[in-house]
Amino acid sequence: MMRWALAIWRCLRMACHALHGVLVVLLRFPRLTPEQQQARVQAWALQMLACAGITLEVRGEPVLRGPVLMVANHLSWLDIPVLHAARYCRFISKSDVRDWPIVGTLATAGGTLYIERASRRDALRMVQSMQEALEQREVLAVFPEGTTGDGRELLPFHANLLQAAIAAQAPVQPVGIRFVDKKSGDVSYAPSYIGDETLLGSIWRTLAAPPLVAVVHYGALESAEGQDRRTLSQYLHARVDELRKN
Q1: What is the domain partition of the chain in residue ranges?
Q2: Helix (H) or strand (E) holding 186
Q3: 102 torsion bin: left (phi>0), alpha (psi -120 to 50), beta (else)
Q4: Where is 222: in which H helix or E strand?
Q5: How many helices (H) and strands (E) does the chain have?
Q6: Which segments of the chain are extended strands (E)?
Q7: Residues 6+ apart with CB under 8 A from 177
Q8: Are 173 and 153 contacting, i.e. CB atoms less than 8 angstroms apart?
Q9: What is the phi-psi region of residue 157: left when phi exceeds 0, alpha when psi lies from -120 to 50, beta otherwise?
């Protein structure tokens, strides 16, 4: 019963925080500079983690300024707020997220770039949009696995979107994410979201879990200039796999 009560309390806090975020986006964002908007997004994400009973631990050094393409593993519905809380960045997401109630509003306000995953033509458009954003010295983030894994094994990387960093001659920063039990320090798979599991089921299991720590481990910047995207993808896969375990 205590776990149920805790999960319900965390859920209510998260819902209120999300609604407050929408109000800020609608009422205050139009009057803020891009830098102020980015600071708001980062602060909002950090508070959202707190509402879920999660603290943030950052290892390594996130890049101070762009251009850079961050490449991270993907294991949870929490990965985006976790990375936003550690360092503001613009994500690449499937286009239907834009139409989700509340989530779509928040994602768009966070600078998300949307892609039609089933369309090869749109993938080419997205690479061009990412290249332009990098040339404007922005910080982008992608999950090359293309879907969430179980956190035990890193799925193969899709190399297509890495072409943007190569074309823009922008550095790439590998990033490893994992969740650990705050008390024992053991790896926790409570936030994982895989297979036929429902999103609500994953959220509920996370909120009912003991306090967790989201560990974000930033690796050194890697040059993408002149590299083949498949070779770069294989190298980054090995680096991300190492970072998510340490």
Answers
A1: 2-243
A2: none
A3: left
A4: none
A5: 8, 7
A6: 54-59, 68-72, 90-94, 113-115, 139-142, 172-181, 212-218
A7: 72, 73, 74, 75, 76, 79, 82, 83, 214, 215, 216, 217, 244
A8: no
A9: beta
Helix 199-207 and helix 2-27, axial crossing angle in degrees, nearest 10: 110
Q: Tell me if residue 76 falls in helix, strand or coil.
A: strand
Residue whose token pair is 């680096």? 239
Nearest residue to 81 (alpha-carbon basis) of 147, 194, 177? 177
Which helix or strand (DSSP H or E) is residue 100 part of? none
Residues 236 and 172 sit within 8 Å (Cβ to Cβ)? yes
Give me the tens of pLDDT residue by residue for the chain, a chain 246 residues long: 788 999 999 999 999 999 999 999 999 999 999 999 999 999 999 999 999 999 999 999 999 999 999 999 999 999 999 999 999 999 998 888 888 889 999 999 999 999 887 677 888 899 999 999 999 999 999 999 988 888 889 999 999 999 999 999 999 999 999 999 999 999 999 999 887 788 888 999 999 999 999 999 999 999 988 889 999 999 999 999 999 998
Residue in the structure block whose two tokens are 């896969």 = 237
pTM of the model: 0.93
The answer to whether 205 and 173 are in contact (CB under 8 A) is: no
Give the CATH architecture of domain 2-243.
Answer: 3-Layer(aba) Sandwich (3.40)
